[in-house]
Write a structure and sequence with these properties.
The chain is mainly α and 71 residues long. It has two helices and no strands. The termini are close together.
């Protein structure tokens, strides 16, 4: 079960990396000085990626907990 914990931690860190990427993209869009429609479109793409990264992170944490409980 040790491999499940390690794999879960790697997946969770990948999800956290995705969340950091989303923050950077949102800041980049904010500082680009876009008009309202372009800003809305850019942030809608970031929200989709944010939810995906959050799901990946949650999946990784569930794997870590499952690995710990099965050990």
């Amino acid at each position: 079960m040790q491999i499940l914990v390690i794999l879960g931690a790697v997946i969770a860190l990948a999800g956290v990396g995705g969340l950091v990427w989303c923050i950077l993209q949102a800041l980049k869009a904010r500082h680009a000085g876009l008009d309202d429609a372009a800003m809305r479109a850019a942030l809608q793409r970031v929200v989709v990626m944010n939810m995906a990264a959050l799901g990946v992170s949650a999946l990784g944490l569930m794997m870590v907990v499952a690995g710990i409980m099965l050990s």
